[in-house]
Design a protein that fits this description.
By secondary structure, the chain is mainly alpha-helical. The N and C termini lie far apart (111 Å).
Length: 102
């Protein structure tokens, strides 16, 4: 069928540029909005977009998990103070005899 013989309402409604192809038919016999070529292109674009979004969500989730498992600057300061305390030669046992005399 030539381009001129396809009625306007049966032509593909691809947005980027006019498409002379006939609209594809659904399984139930009604018409899709696009021709088969542009349907395949649109479906591929949609799959690619969904894949990119899934990858972004996975990456964000991994970053959140990593951030939750890392220490903050305050945590590192507390660890350094504890380390200094443990390295210091401070007796940990109290002289109970002197405390009882009070």
């Amino acid at each position: 069928m030539s381009q001129a013989s396809i009625p306007l309402e049966l032509r593909c409604t691809y947005r980027s540029k006019p498409c002379p192809n006939e609209r594809a038919r659904k399984r139930n016999g009604t018409l899709h909005k696009l021709c088969q070529t542009h349907r395949l292109k649109a479906n591929k674009t949609q799959r690619d977009m969904q894949r990119r979004l899934r990858e972004q969500r996975r990456q964000q989730q991994l970053e959140r998990q990593l951030a939750a498992s890392q220490f903050s600057g305050e945590d590192f300061q507390a660890i350094e103070l504890l380390d200094e305390f443990l390295k210091a030669d401070i007796p940990l046992e109290l002289d109970t005899d002197t405390e009882l005399d009070m």
